[in-house]
Amino acid sequence: MEQNRKKNSGFEDFDRKESISFGHYLEESDRLLFADSYYDGEAGRRRSEIVLLDRKSGERRRISAGGEGEGNPALSPDGRRVLFLSTLPGQGRQLFVYDLETEACRQVTTMRFGLTDPLWSPDGTKILFTSSGSDTMDEDWLQTPADPAEEARYRRERAKEPVVITDLGYKFDGLGFAQPEVMHLWVVEADGSAKARRITAGEANFMHGAWAPDSKHVLCESNLYCDKSIGIAMDLLYLDVETCEMSRVTRDKMVVSYPNPVRPVFTPDGKYIIIGILDYEGRKDLNGTYPSCTLYRVTPDGKELTSISEKTEECLDTVQFAYNAGCGAGLEKVRVSSDGRYVLFHACFRGECRIFKTPIYGEDHRPVALTKGKYAHNGMGVPKNGKVLLSQSETDVPESYVLLDENTGGTELLYQSNEDWLAEKALSRAEDFFFDCLDGRSLVHGFCLPPQNREPGKKYPCIVYVHGGPHPFYTYGFDLEMQAFAGNGFGVLFCNPRGSSGYGDEHRKIEYAFDGSAYTDIMQFVSEAVRRFDWIDGDRLGLTGGSYGGYMTNYAASRNKRFKAFITQRSIGNELISYASSDMQGDSGAYPTFGEFMDHEVERSVICGMEKVDAPFLILHGVDDLRCPVEGAHQLFVAIKDSHPEDFPVKLVLYPGCAHNQPIHPGQLRHYYRTMLDWFKTYL
Fold this sequence. Notes:
Layout: H1 13-16, E1 19-26, E2 31-40, E3 45-54, E4 60-63, E5 68-75, E6 81-88, E7 92-99, E8 105-107, E9 116-120, E10 126-133, H2 139-142, H3 148-160, E11 171-172, E12 176-177, E13 182-189, E14 197-198, E15 206-211, E16 217-222, E17 233-240, E18 246-248, E19 254-256, E20 265-266, E21 273-278, E22 293-298, E23 305-307, E24 334-336, E25 342-349, E26 352-359, E27 368-369, E28 387-394, E29 397-405, E30 411-416, H4 419-424, E31 431-436, E32 443-449, E33 460-466, H5 480-487, E34 491-496, H6 510-514, H7 517-532, E35 536-546, H8 548-557, E36 565-569, H9 575-581, H10 594-603, E37 617-622, H11 631-643, E38 650-655, H12 666-683
Parallel strand pairs: 33-34, 33-35, 35-36, 36-37, 37-38
Antiparallel strand pairs: 1-2, 2-3, 3-4, 5-6, 6-7, 7-8, 9-10, 10-13, 11-12, 13-14, 15-16, 16-17, 17-18, 17-19, 19-21, 20-21, 21-22, 22-23, 24-25, 25-26, 26-27, 28-29, 29-30, 31-32, 32-34
């Protein structure tokens, strides 16, 4: 029996786990098209390629232009060609079209700064895509690939230029200071017979493009006219592809753009556009709480605007912020059903990432859930013949593709990623439970992931992991980081305290995330988990989290003696630093004087309680983080070091080139996880 026991997973599995994205189902031939990222043992690194899988024979055809990092495949409307992106030496990321019958592959762009988000026109003759540039840059120059030396010189010269700032919203995490290069829309002939044409103009971003059914017009979201400092929402624009004439569809309504954009989509007859609109009227109405999103039906001229997604007890929002549902990359969140009568969309209900449908026409717009159960669905393919491709994962099952019946909600498994890996790994399945908050105002949903190959009667240390946001939520999705901790002998506890979305408007109020309510919820959850699961060693608990989760780690560290070790990741330490140095600037308007505002910001900052920290404290932070500026990490470290004995365990680890995320570079990420694991193993 012992010989057949599956192996525990570990952080080395990040290199080896298969990741799938941009799925398409070819129903007539029962084939799947998708991008596949996997570990190449011979080369010793990860590869990304386009796969056409014959489900009957199991044959896998590779679609390639001979480049690196090949991805973003999309099937042409006639099903005969595939567009995709590939990076060739000295050319950057370019667009290619592959013929499924002849297997011929044609390069159709030579963009200097590469491109993203390519989309077929409905008639299959043109391709819309996004690329950076500015109005002052010549289109021919923008379509002339730079050799590496020229590109390096250009970047060095750009880095020397002064940065002139006149408005808020002048920087963004991962991008840095706003530059003349903004995102523009381009159109190119699918057969590569002519150079691409830029169809947008203005020093603004144009993104999330979509074609009209006539293949002569496109939609996009842009901050050309609206307040650029808002960031989370834009206007919807309507463009003539031939004349490049732009018209503004929305004016007093803000189309959701960040952090979970909803691409606008036309009804099949072209009369209406389906968009997600945030339920607020302007910056002053935001007050910190991310507004809910409602689906609307709007005419291209903007004159008719009708809500089509009523809020119900099961469907609270039409944008979901799943924190740990790492499936569905490259798939859309909103689609029109294959019969043209309904909108299919994602929404969360108590930790479930469900698919709902709501009527486009008529008077009754109450959404109906098509999927229910302990799954995470996070992307949809193109609906056809009453069925639509979905991504799906579970707490112990990585992403898969399933086919959803639009009428019955039934699903059929088409492809399970990581089958070989799953066969040998002892992945844990999370158990979940609900409990009432101490003040009776809400309930909290918690999850417990046990250690892999857990031995009966043995006690195990646990890591409490707080999600970021605070508005995202933990779902029933697969999380490899948590599984790696479980494979190293730790249980992982995670919950959705107040401030999280998916549990009602009252539950997600932003004030609860910072007034001590969420902290109380988390501590109550920990006590409840220790009571429910006898394998948890309540004397060996660690606490960690990133962003808001890092803030909560700092907050708890100065108020609680239950945890034996802390790891704070990309966290907020001093609110005054965030006020001016973050890419999400603060607002002092509610205070009589600016001095009172500054005093209050310091008083409520977790930095003020660092002298009370009594357990080992590890700080992990990216040097280029603009969401939670790295200066906050320096202050946390100095405050603890300065107020504690010399031998108190405190460490600061900084990652160059890393923004507000865990490191992307494989070497840095390995170091990051090894550092976390060593810290918890040492002190728990």
